[in-house]
């Protein structure tokens, strides 16, 4: 019979203000899902970069102030009107 025995000194704090010790094993053979987790983290970071990139708003030129409203044509998909605080439309 195999028994796991651990030394309590490895897991107890010396003072009450100390942080709990967390055991970590960084051996890649013991973590078969590490590559999949890292891929998922990279994918989520890429999605967040795309969300915060705002390339379409940056492409609206011709305004002296910020763009505050957009309107689309009800029948033509390629027609968009933008309005800003400077009073002009593009």
- Calculate the mean pLDDT score and round it: 78
Give start-end ranges of low-pLDDT stretches.
none
Continuous helix count: 2
Question: Order of SSEs, N→C?
Answer: HHEE
Class of secondary structure makeup: alpha+beta
Q: How much helix, percentage-wise, in residues?
A: 25-40%
Q: Identify the overall geometry.
A: elongated
How many beta strands in the DSSP annotation? 2
Radius of gyration: 28 Å
Q: What can be said about the biggest beta sheet? A: 2 strands, antiparallel
Strand content: 5-15%
Main sheet strand line-up: 1-2
Walk me through what this model shows.
With 90 residues, the protein is of the alpha+beta class. The protein is built from two helices and two strands, in the order H-H-E-E. It has helices at 34-53, 55-58, and strands at residues 67-72, 80-84. The protein has a two-stranded antiparallel sheet with strand order 1-2. Strand 1 and strand 2 form a beta hairpin. It starts with 33 loop residues before the first helix and ends in a 6-residue tail after the last strand. The mean pLDDT is 78.
Task: Record the SSE blueprint.
Blueprint: H1 34-53, H2 55-58, E1 67-72, E2 80-84
């Amino acid at each position: 019979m195999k028994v796991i025995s651990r030394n309590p000194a490895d897991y107890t704090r010396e003072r009450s203000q100390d942080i709990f010790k967390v055991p970590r094993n960084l051996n890649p053979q013991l973590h078969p899902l590490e590559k999949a987790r890292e891929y998922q983290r990279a994918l989520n970071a890429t999605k967040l970069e795309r969300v915060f990139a705002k390339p379409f708003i940056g492409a609206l030129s011709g305004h002296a102030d910020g763009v505050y409203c957009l309107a689309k044509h009800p029948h033509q998909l390629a027609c968009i009107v933008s309005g800003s605080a400077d009073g002009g439309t593009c």
